[in-house]
Amino acid sequence: MSDYKHGEMSTTEQEKTYAGFIKGTIWLSGICIGILVFMAIFTS
């Protein structure tokens, strides 16, 4: 087992994953809002 040294681990993959998660969340929220607006306008 190797010794852990604080601050020496690369986090680029974690940052890319988090950025993708945020982008997906924004897209999903926009789609949901669009569906709700469509339903409010065209259904009665």
β content, as a range? under 5%
**Share of residues in helices:** over 70%
Q: Which quaternary structure do these chains form?
A: single chain
- Shape assignment: rod-shaped
Radius of gyration, Cα only, in angstroms?
Answer: 20 Å
Order of helices and strands: H
3D structure, described in words:
The protein starts with 11 loop residues before the first helix and ends with a helix. The protein is rod-shaped, with a radius of gyration of 20 Å. Helices cover 70% and strands 0% of the residues. The chain is mostly helical.
List the helices and strands and how they pair.
Elements: H1 12-42
Characteristics:
44 residues; mainly alpha; 1 helix; 70% helix; rod-shaped
Give a short summary of the structure.
Helix content is 70%, strand content 0%. The chain has 44 residues and is mainly alpha-helical.
